Amino acid sequence: MSVPIPAAASEPLVMIRGVSKVYERGRERLEVLHGVDLDIPRGDFLALMGPSGSGKSTLLNMIAGLDVPSAGILHVAGRRIDRLSETALAHWRAAHVGFVFQFYNLLPALSAQRNVELPLLLTRLPAARRRHSAAIALRLVGLADRASHKPSELSGGQQQRVAIARAIVSDPTLLVCDEPTGDLDRHSAEEVLTLLQRLNREHGKTMVMVTHDPKAAEFAKHVLHLDKGVLVEAGEPPASGP
After folding, report:
1. From what superkingdom does this record's organism come (predicted)?
2. Which element (helix H / strand E) includes 95?
């Protein structure tokens, strides 16, 4: 089933055609996604919603190159990624995707600055350039004054903002956010969502966010719902926004 998002003038950043995903465990066969068709324009902020087991995280992982479909075609950032080898896919992810997870995934022994620098260690940038890029990313998320702090010295909301800085430090084509506010109180969640919204609106970052929270989905430009592996509904948040 195809669920449209309002068309963009240029080629979509993400183009999914007939994508299915089947997991096999012994004799058990579980089809998580069923022939999904979806276009995501450049500059969109898309929220994926649905009950547990609906396939939303599986779809997110495929868009991010963390998983591959059992059938169908998946183009992201001008590349057909469903045909890439594991090595090529890892290089593609490093160049094009920034990740924001529910539990931050920061290294506790490193400062905020060093955590943000981590993706740049895979590049040939000299140390001074890495530090400069990390400082810019921390400033964008409002944590320039916390650069020397370790994760244990930061609140949950601040840790997630460090994680967002790490996700954007290499200027990725796409940000994928898996329940980015699931471990935060409402105030911290709104700060993080406002930051993501600003990165989308002011810096043109394309984002795909999985969330179970309707309040979080209101910060997105578009909302898609999955049920039993099928896209069943499309919608847009109220025009007024949060």
Report:
1. Bacteria
2. helix 86-96
Strands 28-40 and 14-25 come out as antiparallel
Q: How many domains does the chain have?
A: 1
CA 163 to chain centroid? 12
* Domain membership flag for residue 85: no
Nearest-angstrom CA–CA distance, 76 and 81: 7
Phi, psi of 21 (to 5 degrees): -140, 125
CB proximity list for 62: less than 8 A, separation 6 or greater:
16, 19, 21, 33, 68, 69, 74, 82
DSSP H or E run through 35: strand 28-40
- Each residue's pLDDT tens digit, 119-134: 998 888 899 999 999 9
Domain with residue 114: its CATH number is 3.40.50.300
For the segment 210-215, the average pLDDT, to the nearest whole number, is 93
- The secondary structure of 123-182 as a DSSP string is S---HHHHHHHHHHHHHHTT-GGGTT--GGGS-HHHHHHHHHHHHHTT--SEEEEESTTT
Residues 107-161 pLDDT 10s? 999 999 999 999 998 888 899 999 999 999 999 999 999 999 999 999 999 999 9
